Amino acid sequence: MSMFCYQCQETAKGTGCTIAGVCGKKPETSNLQDLLIYTAKSIAILREGIDLETRKSCDHSEKIDYYLTNALFTTITNANFDDEAIAAQVTEGLALREEIKAKFIELGRTPKRLKNHDALTFTVTSMKEMQAKSLSVGVLATENEDIRSLRELTIYGLKGMAAYYEHSVNLGYKNQEIVMFMEKALVSTLDDTLSVDELVGLVLETGKYGVDVMALLDGANTGRFGNPELTEVNIGTKSNPGILISGHDLNDIVQLLEQTKGTGVDIYTHSEMLPAHYYPELKKYDHLVGNYGNAWWKQKEEFESFNGPILFTTNCIVPPKAGASYEGKVFTTNAAGYPGWVSIKEDENGNKDFSEIIEMAKTCEAPTQIEEGTIVGGFAHEQVFALADKVVDAVKTGAIKKFFVMAGCDGRMKSRDYYTEFADKLPKDTVILTAGCAKYRYNKLNLGDIGGIPRVLDAGQCNDSYSLALIALKLKEVFQLNDVNELPIAYNIAWYEQKAVIVLLALLHLGVKNIHLGPTLPGFLSPAVVNVLVENFGIAGIGSVDEDIKLFMGE
Ligand code: SF4
Ligand code: SF3
C-alpha cells in the first residue's frame, strides 16, 4: 500500500484509495497531506487552551490561525495537488512549531495535553524524509477502526470548517472561538486516552462549531455583498473574451471584477461560484455576464471550449489530460494548487494582483457557447423570508405538500443520475431547497413553479446550507411547531467532499433527523459509527428513486 485516503465519496471500492487517488491525487501528494495534517496537530498541541487575552496580545496569533486553517483547507479533496507547495507548508509549520516552543521555554509554559508527543519533536528536512515520516502518521496510524472512524469524521468536519473560516477571514470576519475549537479537536484526534463516547461527543461538538462557522460566513458574505436576491443567470456566452472563476471565495471574485472593469474582458462564474450572481454588490458589475458550464467534474471538456484563462479560488480541481488546450491558462489562489499552474498570492494588505490573468484573457478568443438560456437562484434566507406569506399560504392550501432539501455536492459517479431522476419524478406539489454543486443535477430541468414559487429554490453555495436551516427554523416558528422534524421537509443530501461533512454535522447539531445521504454512505464510517448515526439521528442511505419518493411522501 503506497497511500491511504478514504475521505471522499469516490474513494476506491468505497473503502479507500491505496494505489492512487480516484481524484487524481498521487501517493506522494496524499502522504504529504497526511504529514501536513500531523504538522497542524503539532501546532494545535502547543496552542490548545491558550486564553483569548493571551492570543490577543500575541503578534503571531493571526499567522498561526491562518496556518492551521490553510493547512486543513489544502488537504480537502481536489483542492491542492502541488507536492512542492504542500512540502513547503510542512516546513513552514515546523518552523512555526519551533518558534512557539522557544516562546514556551521563555515563559515556562507547557502544553495542556500530549506534552511528550512525537508531533512536538519530529523533524524532516527533505522530500524523502517527509515521505518516510508520513507513512507512520496517516489515517491507518490509528488501529482501532471505530476510534479511527471518529477521529477522521472529526478531521473531515474540521477541513470543511477551516475552508469556511478562511473565506470569512478573507472578508475580515473572525471568531477566535472557532479556531480554539479546531485546536482542541485536532489535539483530541491524537489523544489515546479519549473513549469512543468522548469522541462521539467531539463529533457532535464539531457540528455546533459547524453552525457557528456557517453563520460567520453568511454574515461575512451578506455583510459585504448584501443579501442574495432572486436572480436570473445567463448560461450562454457573449462576444468578449472572458475569465472563468471557480471555487467559493467571494473576496477573490470581487477583486477580479474590480480589476477587469473597463478592460473589455468579461467574467463568467463556474460551478460553486454561480451564486456570486445573486449578491447585489456583485451583480452590479455589468461585465459579470454569466455562468459557464456545470459542476466541477465536467471541467475537462468545458475548459477546452471556454478558450480563456481560468482561476481556481478553492476546490474542485480535476487534473487535466496531457495536451489539454487550457494548460498554461489555469491559475490558483488561496489553498488551491496544481503543479505548474501559477498560484496568485495576496500582498501584505490582503490584495491580489490578477493582471497576468487579465492580460492573458485579452489575447484569447471569446468562450464557445455550449448552452443557452437562464437559470434562477438567490433563495437564501432573506429572499425566502420575503416570500414567506406566499410560501406559508401554499403550504396551508396544500399547493405545496412537501419540501425536499437536496443540498450538497455533485460528483462524476454514474449513480448520481439518481438525483436528476429523483428531482424530475418528484410530485409537482413539492419544492426542492438546494445549495452546493449538487444542484447541477437538476437546475436546468425546468421543473416549473407553484403559484410563482420556483420548484427549485437555490440558496447558493454548500456553505449556504445554513440558509436552508434558517428557513426550516423560520417555518417551525410560523407553524408553531416544537420540533423542526415535524415540518413537511425531507432531507435527501448528496455528498462528495469534506465541506459536506461539516454541513451534515451542523444539521445534526440543529436537531435534524432522518437525513438520507448518498449516493453511498461514507467509507470512513465504521459499522459501529454508522449504528450510532442510525440510532440517534435516523441517518439512512438511498434506494431506488421510486421507492424513495414513496417513502418520503409517506405513501
Ligand atoms: Fe481517494 Fe477521495 Fe482521497 Fe482522492 S480524496 S485519494 S478520491 S478518497
Ligand atoms: Fe462542490 Fe467540490 Fe462539494 Fe461546495 S465544488 S460543494 S463538490
Observed structural traits:
single chain; 555 residues; alpha/beta; Substrate Binding Domain Of Dnak, Chain:A, Domain 2; Rossmann fold; five-stranded parallel beta sheet; binds iron/sulfur cluster; binds FE4-S3 cluster
Detailed description of the structure:
The chain has 555 residues and is of the alpha/beta class. It folds into three domains: 213 residues, Substrate Binding Domain Of Dnak, Chain:A, Domain 2, CATH 1.20.1270.20; 132 residues, Rossmann fold; 174 residues, Rossmann fold. It has 19 helices and 15 strands. Strands 4-3-2-5-6-7 form a six-stranded parallel beta sheet. A five-stranded parallel beta sheet has the order 13-10-9-14-15, covered by helices on one side. The protein is globular, with a radius of gyration of 23 Å. The termini are far apart. The model has no long low-confidence stretch (mean pLDDT 97).
